[in-house]
Specification:
The protein has 299 residues and is α/β, with parallel strands linked by helices. It has ten helices and eleven strands. Helix 7 packs across helix 8 (237-248). It is globular and about 60 Å long. The two termini are 37 Å apart.
């Protein structure tokens, strides 16, 4: 399965371009049997380009049915997993197999977590390729994500003292924007965002991340120093760059707080929150422990 090709991690291990990254991700095809299909994202231009070069079967997945040109350009089309009338549907030839409504998938947050709808499509397509029974696929998708313990630190929502706290691992612009799609529908009187970044990103990628946060017009931002993840940068260098970009994005100095750990970020968040507020915590270390602490507070 190849879900997407993004710019995150460019510069690592000699991979300096999107095209090189796509080639690396598609190496997985060489571990498959000759008749085994690849499950590929039809909505990603780099995925389409590489998959259409392959002679092996391809199962496309997409939030909307792929264009006819995508299907006709596929050498060996093995099927399409998509959404029709808010239902997950598997199309193969003239057969149309309905799986379950998007609304029945807890991880999809009512459909606002579009990235998780796409993930569900990809997972269901792979399961069908492996001939997993339909009842098992439906059961798994309708249960997974109902509890924060299912996938700690991934779009986990907690209600604490009348406020909402969303915890996620989002660590690139695409990831944080996906979370903002979910939280856009949550009530908020004030908004707090806590985030940091590792040092193996380019300055441009760091600024893009800060811009994505500034676009949300938060009332408070907590900038984390991620001491375990300097990765060649000096102490304080990343928070300083993020702070500079947030100020350029229109935030005021008094809205920004810098901390040195996940624990300190959580403490600042909880001290600041009032009933009706929304906090979005992008947590990158001690995920299980922070998730467990938030679960206990919610209880």
């Amino acid at each position: 399965m190849v879900t997407n090709i993004g710019e995150d991690h460019l510069g690592d291990l000699g991979i300096n371009s999107i095209e090189q990254l796509a080639e690396v991700k598609f190496l997985i095809q060489h571990g498959l049997g000759a008749r085994a299909p690849m499950v590929v994202n039809a909505e990603d231009v780099h995925c389409r380009r590489h998959a259409r070069r392959m002679s092996r079967p391809v199962i496309w997945f997409a939030l909307r049915p792929p264009r006819p040109s995508v299907l006709s350009g596929t050498q060996r089309l093995a099927g399409v997993m998509t959404v029709e009338a808010d239902q997950l549907v598997y199309l193969r030839g003239q057969r149309r197999t309905k799986l379950l409504p998007v609304a029945a998938i807890p991880a999809a947050h009512g459909g606002s977590a579009r990235h998780n709808v796409a993930n569900a499509l990809a997972a269901a397509a792979a399961a069908m390729a492996m001939k997993v029974p339909l009842h098992a696929i439906r059961s798994a998708l309708s249960c997974f994500g109902a509890s924060p313990e299912d996938n700690p630190g991934r779009a986990s929502l907690f209600r604490i003292n009348g406020a909402s706290v969303m915890m996620d691992f989002g660590h690139n612009p695409e990831g944080v924007r996906a979370i903002f799609e979910i939280t856009a529908k949550l009530p908020r009187q004030r908004l707090l965002i806590s985030f940091g970044q590792a040092g193996d990103r380019t300055d441009e990628a760091l600024r893009d991340l800060a811009d994505a946060l500034a676009d949300q017009s938060p009332d408070r931002v907590i900038i984390k120093e991620m001491n375990k993840y300097h990765r060649g940068r000096g102490a304080g260098e990343i928070p300083a760059l993020l702070r500079e970009q947030l100020l350029l994005g229109g935030l005021q100095p008094e809205q920004l707080t810098q901390v040195d750990s996940e624990d300190e970020a959580l403490k600042h968040c909880l001290d600041w929150l009032r009933p009706g507020d929304l906090a979005i915590l992008f947590v990158h270390s001690d995920i299980d422990r922070i998730s467990a602490e938030l679960s206990e507070l919610a209880r």
